[in-house]
Specification:
The protein is of the alpha/beta class. It has helices at about 35-50, 55-65, 80-90, 95-115, 140-155, 175-185, 190-195, 220-235, 270-280, 295-300, 310-315, 320-325, 340-345, 350-360, 370-385, 390-405, 420-425, 435-440, and strands spanning about 25-30, 35, 130-135, 155-160, 195-200, 235-240, 255, 260-265, 330, 365-370, 410-415, 430. The strands form 4 sheets. Strands 4-5-8-3-9 form a 5-stranded parallel beta sheet. About 30% of the residues are buried.
Length: about 450
């Protein structure tokens, strides 16, 4: 048996009928019988699966060409309460957003499993997927929420930055490359990739900043929104396996985005002002101010104003109507308070304080933080406006000298970080071992 010919002879697969010019490889059998590598994979799955498969390889190929999902993988779908409990172990605060995401993700994957098990939606109603839009300041946990959900569900997860994307045909990264990252995260398994999660950060940077018509094409703003439309709702996308447009002769991967969950996120700076102006119209006019509840007034004055955001506010911000319509679930995140930042440092399963304490324990040194030091770290991150993301940079700057010295010393028993050390008024306090302890450790 041999691979496909090198003499440019066109042979056709005896199972699916495709020519060897459209297949990665083809195996020749006796009497002019050929089988392509794709059909070999399908036959292997037919043998491995319990009970076999009712479709022949040719039927599976036809189904792929029509864009239908070859198979939805089987996995357990946690209840919303279970998802939220898992998020609580890694993300501080954002209680409402955790519930919104838990419900949206549960409904999405429960629907897929119902379809996989052959269930029929009552009345023939097709339940559409609910893509999510997260709105909140930097460092409030948007990326961590999406990644933690994907880890809990054990589905492929791909993340991209919208600022690097451009409309097809222009210098930059194609939107289809997002799908390529998802396929790579699924270890090239298209079936698993088609039920994965794609996280698009900085989506607010694609907003149209002015309503004036420009003679130049907005290829990295509104053009990106237009390019994302076809994969957000669900379509068959041709993905170059090597990415980019440098290999026009490469065979494209076909992936159905119908069951891929998209989570878009952005800071949307200034959106609060749009919400306040919209709601404020109710209290202006010649007839005098309308009644405004105390709860509503406090919400408008505080960071909770984003909870009142509506699609029309996103349209005024610069998102196109079609794009907003494909992100029906809006999850607003609040800015973390100093108390929240203290919890971020200490409570999550892989908190920063626990990470540094583990590093010091490897050197045989106990690391301690006073309550005042934790509050000072949170206050400093709050002043810089970097949220939880800035805590690591602050800690690295604080700990660099002591982490440089401790591995070279054998006489250090513990290290205590005080509020004065965080403020730069003193160095971290090092406690030396007793002579007896030094002899035991030596």
């Amino acid at each position: 048996m041999s691979r496909k010919n090198n003499n440019n002879q066109v042979n056709h697969c005896s199972f699916c009928g495709r020519p060897n010019t459209e297949t990665p490889a083809m195996v020749a059998g006796p009497d002019g019988v050929y089988i392509c590598s794709d059909c070999i994979d399908i036959c292997r799955h037919m043998v491995d699966e319990e009970g076999g498969v009712s479709q022949s390889p040719s039927e599976v190929h036809k189904r792929k060409s029509r864009g239908q999902t070859p198979e939805i993988p089987k996995f357990e779908v946690p209840r919303p309460a279970e998802l939220k409990d898992h998020l609580d172990n890694y993300v501080v605060g954002q209680e409402r957003v955790k519930k919104i995401l838990s419900v949206a993700v549960h409904n999405h994957y429960k629907r897929l499993q119902h379809i996989r098990e052959g269930g029929v939606i009552s009345s023939g109603v097709d339940i559409e997927k609910s893509n999510v839009l997260m709105i909140g300041p930097t460092g409030c946990g948007k990326t961590l929420l999406a990644r933690t959900l994907a880890q809990k569900l054990e589905v492929p997860f791909a993340m991209t930055d919208a600022t690097t994307l451009t409309e097809a045909g222009y210098v930059g990264e194609d939107v289809e490359n997002i799908l390529l990252r998802l396929i790579q995260a699924a270890n090239e398994d298209i079936g698993k990739a088609q039920v994965g999660i794609i996280y698009v950060d900085e989506i607010d940077k694609t907003a149209r900043r002015t309503e004036n018509v420009s003679i130049t094409r907005d290829v990295s703003g509104e053009g990106v929104q237009q390019a994302l439309l076809k994969i957000l709702e669900g379509n068959i996308a041709n993905v170059p396996p090597k990415g980019g447009r440098k290999h026009p002769q490469q065979e494209y991967l076909r992936i159905d985005t119908t069951n891929i969950l998209f989570i878009c996120a952005g800071a949307f700076v200034g959106l609060e002002d749009s919400v306040r102006r919209r709601i404020g119209k109710r209290v202006l006019g010649f007839s005098g101010p309308a009644e405004q509840s105390e709860e509503e007034r406090k919400m408008l004055e505080g960071a909770q104003v984003l909870e009142m955001a509506e699609p029309e506010d996103l349209l005024k911000f610069g998102l196109i109507p079609e794009f907003v319509g494909r992100l029906p679930v809006i999850a607003p995140l609040a800015e973390l308070t100093e108390e929240d930042l203290v919890k971020v440092l200490t409570e999550p399963r892989n908190s920063l304080i626990k990470q540094y304490q583990t590093l010091f324990s490897i050197e045989g040194v106990e690391l301690k933080f006073t309550d005042g030091a934790l509050r000072a770290l949170a206050r400093l991150a709050k002043e810089r406006g970097t949220g939880a993301r800035g805590l690591r940079a602050i800690l690295e700057s604080l700990m660099v000298n002591v982490m440089y010295d401790v591995p070279s010393r054998q006489d250090v028993e513990s290290c205590t970080i005080t509020e004065a050390a965080v403020d730069g008024r003193e160095s971290p306090r090092l406690k030396k071992k007793t002579a007896a302890r030094q002899r035991r450790s030596a």
